[in-house]
């Protein structure tokens, strides 16, 4: 704390203080609140440089009645209410006052630690809520070397009747390739009368069962990340077509939303995006509760209710995925598309590829390199995602070392920086026919290594860990080592990998590279494990476990079509605990009982989950898994899960996302119910999502979090602007999603914040 420039106690100082405070209260303007001067005529503001020995400060009250030894803020723990009625914000300014231990006002300076809550004038203590976010901040008053703090909360209540004003930054929100509001279904219903609002807010008749009125989507207990679009609420009811009106209610600590809509015979309805953002940004760890009511104009049915969790982290990165029958390419050709959390529609990942088929891709976890095959499958190419998809290399015929380039990188595992990959051999639907090996991205030639080719001949659907020090795969063929044998498709293995990486880095030295310590993660002769992906900290692997193979003659055991069924499983890389079925992500409760809705086309959606990958950056205490699923998407895509639709109507084959507790306990399912990834084309079949870090931004660029920045830090512009990237580590500790080398680099390390894959991550739930 800086010491005061007021050098001595004197009644005159107290008198000047009283005069200044009185002038401020009389509205004399900023000049009336200048700091008093000491007896030497110097400026004595409310702070002075440190290091002034012997500067003992004692303030005397305005009435000379005694020393001011402490201050406090009144009102204490205030709550500022904000109402937003159809977009119109109403709130009253709050005046905070600092008083001495003698209960006399003092001329303090005020500050708040959460500027997004509103504007606090330092000299007057007047706070005006922004209406952008609810929540609680800490107000500090400073008077000389005395300080006081109090919590200040902003409570927001939103009411809406009919469609809101256009949401800025959402050019596709009204419909398009990603569907209405990026999630499909109906657009907003119309406004309702005050009389109907009163009816919808009054007594309701509880439904007797879920068939009368029940949720189809989202799922209860879903974990929502910040930065994701609002979900489409979808339900079933026996009261259709009599229903005319819908009420949507959201509530959490310091926030409530009520939306009233004329929605005749609706069976789904969007949530207002602006209200959703306010709810997620203002959440402080308390449950977000959702309720739905229907009415025919006289009777109200409901509520049906769910409770959700809001992650404190912002979901970042890009998902690259295969899409078939996409409207973004000509004909019904396959394409690689890209979508970011918060986007209303996807885009072509590789500009200029719209007229031809590009499929079977893989992406390096640093987001730099994408490799894909063309429509013959035999030829492929690698692309530089940091340079707008510029071609790096093409693969056809033979490589310089005379190894065949035919399908060489197809379903292979790329090293994190994209400089080489471990090939997938023989046992996927499309594959290279030569033994698995390391091959250079630059020209397709083999890279010398030790410990691998002598033990493994067919590594199927391999994947490197985000730090590049481990690799996992289905160990299908090979002599094995150290007592570990090939499983003929029924086992998952892991090996250590050393390419001379520097500590904390991923750049390799010169070959030969070393594989070692072959061990088995999982084996079950009744299942076929594949498509594994590491968690960001390397502590575990999530994988697709086939429980019923494709019914297409000669098809591969790890295929995802032809009636093939699979579940998501996870296993600890420490080997001690047994692998576990990810019940909650698959659609079962903690007791294994299915909670997913069903119909004649979807009798068992818990076993239609495939091809998981993981965001390499943990966020909000969670790992984020994206996977392919053929499950019902509520009532928007509820037809045959194996129908390709030919691009004419919505089909269920889509990408879903599930949170996994970052501090989950081994051998216990740490997953949560999944949510539909917004922005996908509804009429396209989407699969095999790769979640990667976006190419970094140089210093000086605008940012939201440190992982966006090449320097690893995102901080306030020193000139008073917004957040911007910087490559200079700030004083103190690194915030969530900022660069780190060890846990100790992170703010809150003593409270469980961890350094995971080079970025600070908040602890997950206990």
What this model shows, in words?
This protein is mainly beta. Among the domains are: 11-77 and 90-114 and 138-149, no CATH class; 162-311, Immunoglobulin-like (Sandwich); 526-679, no CATH class; 706-761, no CATH class. The chain is built from four helices and 49 strands. The strands form 13 sheets. Strands 4, 5, 9, 12, 13, 15, 17, 18, 20 and 21 form a ten-stranded mixed sheet that branches. It has a five-stranded mixed sheet with strand order 32-36-35-34-33, with no helix packed on it. A four-stranded antiparallel sheet has the order 24-23-22-45, with no helix packed on it.
**Arithmetic mean pLDDT:** 88
Helix percent band? under 10%
Please state the structural category.
mainly beta
The number of helical runs is: 4
| Contiguous runs where pLDDT drops below 50 for at least 5 residues | 1-57
Q: For the record, give the distance between the C-alpha atoms at the N and C termini, rounded to a whole number.
A: 36 Å
Share of residues in strands:
35-45%
Based on CA inertia axes, which overall geometry fits?
A: globular
Counted beta strands:
49
C-alpha Rg (nearest Å) = 30 Å
Query: How would you characterize the largest beta sheet?
Result: 10 strands, mixed
Q: Which helices and strands appear, and what pairs or packs with what?
A:
Layout: H1 11-25, E1 59-60, E2 67-68, E3 71-74, E4 79-85, E5 88-91, E6 94-95, E7 97-100, E8 105-106, E9 109-112, E10 118-120, E11 126-129, E12 135-143, E13 146-161, H2 194-200, E14 213-217, E15 223-226, E16 232-237, E17 245-252, E18 255-262, E19 268-270, H3 273-282, E20 288-295, E21 300-314, E22 318-324, E23 334-339, E24 347-348, E25 358-363, E26 369-374, E27 380-384, E28 390-395, E29 413-414, E30 420-422, E31 438-440, E32 449-450, E33 458-464, E34 470-477, E35 491-498, E36 513-523, E37 528-534, E38 540-548, E39 565-572, E40 580-581, H4 583-586, E41 609-614, E42 622-629, E43 654-661, E44 675-676, E45 685-692, E46 713-716, E47 723-726, E48 754-756, E49 759-761
């Amino acid at each position: 704390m800086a010491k005061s420039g007021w050098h001595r106690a004197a009644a005159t100082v107290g008198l000047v203080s009283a005069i200044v405070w009185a002038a401020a209260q009389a509205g004399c303007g900023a000049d009336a609140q200048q700091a008093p001067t000491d007896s030497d005529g110097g400026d004595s503001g409310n702070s002075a440089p440190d290091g002034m020995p012997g500067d003992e400060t004692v303030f005397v009250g305005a009435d000379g009645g005694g020393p001011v030894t402490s201050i406090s803020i009144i009102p204490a723990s205030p709550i500022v209410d904000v109402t937003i009625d159809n977009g119109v914000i109403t709130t009253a300014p709050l005046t905070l006052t600092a008083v001495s231990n003698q209960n006399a006002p003092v001329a303090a300076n005020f500050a708040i630690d959460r500027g997004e809550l509103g504007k606090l004038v330092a000299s007057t203590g007047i706070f005006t809520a922004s209406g952008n976010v609810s929540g609680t901040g800490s107000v500090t008053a400073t008077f000389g070397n005395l300080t006081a703090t109090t919590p200040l909360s902003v409570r927001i209540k939103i009411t809406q009747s009919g469609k809101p004003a256009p949401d800025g930054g959402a050019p596709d929100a009204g419909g398009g390739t990603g569907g209405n509001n990026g999630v499909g279904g109906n657009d907003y219903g119309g406004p309702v009368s005050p009389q109907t609002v009163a009816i919808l807010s009054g007594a309701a008749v509880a439904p007797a069962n879920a068939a009368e009125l029940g949720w189809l989507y989202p799922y209860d207990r879903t974990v929502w990340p910040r930065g994701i679009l609002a979900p489409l609420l979808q339900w079933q009811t026996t009261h259709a077509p009599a229903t005319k009106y819908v009420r949507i209610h959201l509530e959490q600590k310091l926030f409530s939303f009520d939306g009233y809509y004329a929605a005749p015979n609706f069976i789904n309805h969007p949530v207002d995006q602006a209200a959703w953002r306010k709810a997620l940004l203002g959440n402080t760890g308390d449950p977000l509760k959702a309720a739905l009511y229907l009415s025919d104009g006289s009777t109200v049915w409901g509520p049906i209710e769910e409770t959700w969790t809001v992650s404190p982290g912002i979901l970042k990165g890009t998902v690259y995925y295969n899409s078939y029958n996409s409207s973004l390419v000509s004909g019904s050709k396959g394409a690689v598309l890209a979508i970011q959390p918060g986007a209303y529609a996807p885009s072509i990942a590789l500009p200029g590829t719209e007229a031809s088929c590009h499929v079977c891709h893989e992406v390096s976890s640093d987001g730099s390199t994408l490799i894909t095959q063309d429509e013959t499958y035999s030829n492929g190419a690698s692309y530089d995602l940091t340079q707008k998809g510029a071609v790096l290399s093409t693969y056809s015929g033979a490589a310089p070392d005379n190894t065949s380039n035919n399908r060489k990188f197809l379903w292979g595992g790329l090293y994190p920086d994209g400089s080489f990959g471990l090939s997938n051999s023989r046992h996927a639907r499309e594959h290279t026919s030569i033994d698995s090996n390391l091959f250079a991205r630059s020209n397709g030639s083999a890279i010398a290594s030790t410990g691998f080719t002598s033990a493994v001949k067919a590594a199927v659907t391999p994947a490197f860990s985000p730090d590049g020090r481990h690799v996992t795969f289905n160990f299908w063929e090979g002599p094995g080592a150290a007592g570990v044998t090939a499983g003929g498709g029924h086992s998952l293995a892991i090996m250590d990998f050393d390419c001379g990486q520097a500590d904390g880095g991923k750049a390799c030295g010169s070959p030969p590279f070393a594989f070692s310590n072959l061990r088995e993660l999982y084996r079950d002769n009744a299942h076929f494990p594949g498509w594994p992906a590491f968690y960001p900290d390397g502590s575990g692997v999530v994988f697709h476990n086939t429980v019923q193979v494709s019914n297409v003659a000669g098809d591969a055991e790890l295929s995802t079509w032809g009636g093939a069924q699979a579940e998501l499983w996870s296993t600890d890389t420490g080997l001690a605990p047994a692998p576990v079925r990810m019940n909650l992500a698959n659609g079962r409760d903690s007791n294994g009982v299915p909670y997913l809705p069903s119909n004649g086309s979807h009798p068992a959606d818990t076993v239609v989950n495939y091809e998981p990958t993981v965001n390499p950056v943990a966020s909000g205490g969670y790992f984020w898994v994206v996977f392919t699923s053929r499950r019902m998407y509520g009532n928007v895509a509820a037809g045959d899960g194996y129908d390709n639709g030919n691009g004419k109507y919505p089909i269920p084959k889509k990408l879903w996302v599930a949170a996994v507790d970052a501090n989950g306990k081994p051998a216990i399912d740490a997953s949560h119910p999944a949510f539909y990834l917004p922005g996908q084309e509804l009429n396209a079949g989407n699969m095999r999502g790769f979640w990667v870090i976006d190419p970094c931004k140089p210093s000086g660029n605008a940012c939201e979090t440190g992982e966006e920045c090449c320097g690893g830090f995102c901080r306030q512009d020193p000139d008073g602007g917004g957040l911007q990237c910087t490559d200079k580590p700030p004083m103190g500790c690194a915030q969530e999603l900022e660069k780190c080398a060890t846990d100790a680099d992170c703010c809150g390390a003593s409270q469980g914040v961890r350094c995971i894959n080079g970025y600070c991550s908040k602890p997950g739930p206990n």
